[in-house]
Amino acid sequence: MRLVHSGKIRDLYADGQDLILVASDKVSVYDVVLPTPIPDKGKILTQLSLWWFGRLADIVPNHVISGTDVPAEWAGRAVRCRRLEMIPVECIARGYLAGLGLDSYRASGSVSGVPLPPGLAEGSRLPEPVFTPSTKATTGHDEFMTFDDMAAEVGAEMAAELRRITLEVYQRGADLAAARGVLIADTKLEFGQTPDGSLVLADEVLTSDSSRFWAAEDWQPGRPQRYLDKQFVRDWSSTITGWDRRPPGPPIPEHVVSATRARYIEAFERITQDRWQEVGPCSSTTQTS
Ligand code: Q0Z
Predict the structure, then answer these.
(1) How confident is the prediction for the chain on average, in pLDDT?
(2) 12, 81, 189, 201, best to mutate for ligand 1 pocket (most atoms within 8 Å of CB)
């Protein structure tokens, strides 16, 4: 199969007319990919994304052709999808203040040109979710764009439709996850178009690599939030003296790997209310603990 694009964490292959999206077990902290994988992470996030696509299909069609008709070596961690003409904008919805959204609020009181009320702190819940589109930077960090910038790029009607769908997907996802103990602070969606011009939700959806997942019981505005999934890696990495958070990152010790894997599974199990079960070519013989 032909490799079309290689990302930090995932790869994209072409198979005839289709694309195959493959999630690795790599993990990044502070935007640096560490040399030690988290076993099954790619499978857990792929299965969660497939679960969400099913839960969101009445809002917007998606690019999934199959989560099982994929090469055996990638079973469980790959999705066969429709090749689309991708929209060159990151569609982000935020319900809480963190990350670059927090930076922008502190600098200007707004994000993507949307004014927010004064007095918000790190981790604060916003009065209502906001649409904060970003440019897809080819190098470095994406940058917020205003709704008018976006309309100039994709057309006013398309921009309005993407904002409506993005906020609806976020609202559905955040409400469902919150009821199950996971706060989804924000999420990034990617859309594409079919040859007839209709919009399709693509890439991955509402995973902890495309969103911020916080454990609801630990949420406390006014400080950095604890991540439901990779907090052990973050905590441990901040104790490493002499790592300046630039690549290459340090190898992760085994106890941090296993605790982190358990948190990915916990996020999956809380949200889906299903038990995590290894999906793969020989799941009955694969060690899962
Ligand atoms: C997704 C990405 C990477 C994983 C392009 N259905 C689609 N049609 C056309 N293009 C894409 C998709 Cl999902 C597409 N990406 C992002 C890059 C690994 C996803 F290296 N880029």
Answers:
(1) 95
(2) 12
